[in-house]
Fold this protein.
Amino acid sequence: MYSSPPRREDAWTGDRPGDYAGPPPKGPGLGTTGPDAGYAYKLVRQFDDRLHLGDVSRSDAVSGCVAVAMRRAALMGRAPVIHDLTVAFTMFGFFDPTPNAELSSARSSAFAEIESHHHYFERRQVVDAVDEDALRQPHGSIADRYQSDWRAQFVDGSVMTGPGGHAHPTDQA
């Protein structure tokens, strides 16, 4: 027969060594925390019939774009919604049957194998390549911007080169 431990008389305080006081830290590879981020994986199935993947596998495209969607949702202080995924797939041209050749080549390299947990830093670089101010825009504005100048949505106007061209944050001296 189970019996619960005796009631604790004093109040609980977050004073354990693993507890972090203050806002989450920022920096390379740390990401942006938000509530219920995994919900984006449930929503992603609604896009299967609209995606034009080119040389990118579905699992890699989903992994990278879900991570971007999670970042956008966290920047807004909420869980992901369908528009966050729409934004991510739009920015990388996955709704476009004939994306710009430069974008198509860059995303083929950048998204290569990022679904694997061994490529966490490469996935982070895909997410970090997206301009934060662009992520804060309404999804309609992002679609218009994609059509007029897809580069404007990325930091420094370009998409990274992929696993062969990435440096891990820990490699920097």
